[in-house]
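Entry for the shared binder. Reason: the reviewer on the internal report wants the predicted structure included alongside the sequence.
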Amino acid sequence: MAKYEISGTGTPSKKPYKWGLLRNGQKVTARKQPKVTGEPCSFSPVGGLTKIEVCDQITDASTGRVWCYCRVHGKYGYILYTSIRDYLRTPEQSIDKVAHWVIAGDFSNDETRRKALESLGYDYDAVQARVTEIMTPKPSKGGKFCVWAINFFEDNEALYGDCTAILEYADDGSVAHCVLIDCAQAGAASVIIRKLKEHGVKKIDAVCISHAHGDHYGGLSKIMQAIPVSHIYVPDVTELARYQSTYASAIKRQARKAPSTYLKAGTGFSVGDIKCKCVFIAPANKLKEHDDHHFINNESMVLRFDLGGIIYHTAGDLQNEGNNLLIKAVRSLRADIYKAQWHGDANACNEAICKAVRPKYAFSNYHHKPDRSGREATRKRLNTVGAKFYDNYTYGDIYFRIQGGVISVQTSKG
């Protein structure tokens, strides 16, 4: 492989040294010249599962950007190296690695997946067998749970929100019960539905909506159309309605979609061996601001799940003001697994709440690089109290598997 600077006189090689299929859902632009302002090639944009042959590598001396000289559909063009570096699915990888690509949705579904895998030279049945092995829990007599931070973003930068599933498995490894906490935006519903079904979820016993923002309840209607939902739990909105009736009405609309219960502090529910208790909803009259964003976040209900003695703590988008009230109101907040509030924003995951919860593991549903909005500060705060921190951007789908009081962690990106 030669490496040229644009200012040099070298001629790019047309002999491929590497090839692969672009990840499902990914799109890249091939250009006639190796620069971001270069005219796009006639075959652009290049979509997911398209064969790309990399022939050479060229560096823009003025910007330091690296470009790959590629052949696509028999034609040549320049593609920015960073656009394909992590997204080209290549031959001769381990079955385990390919299986994790499949779990992440990188090869689409059904016959499309089969054709893509076979075109790369992989044994489709062998890969699928490994996928099943990874995703299916071993049978057990003591019950087994999974807290699953669903990665629904899949390269769609417009999506936002939260969606976490709690699964309880039967002795034969099938999903016995499913509780869904928040449903992300409506645009994320198709991904969530696909992944739930791939995991063997045939019904959802309970959906908990943490608060009245669309990136937490927007996907509910579409999910209910695809998978039966037995019950919906929403926060009591009596005080919310005094200040923001529009948002209170939004919660009431969600509650009407199935048999429902309004939770107050001290109330809860059980599904199989999954036990949930609402421990706190901030008194609206004790919050200083009542605007239509931070106030709604601070009206998130705080839920604590008991999963065979392992405690999972989740509080929607509760921010600093709500945190301070929560810490004063609830004597003990220690938990084993903690969902970082407000998508891991440092203005919600302050030092006080991190110290109060002091989890073993923590995560956030977030699809941008974790250095945005102070999220790296959140990671450090949680590391300081002894927690291992995960986010969807870095790890994809995150699975906290619980067996006999022991937690193990798996991610779709290995």
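Summary line for the report: The CA atoms of residues 101 and 390 lie 19 Å apart.
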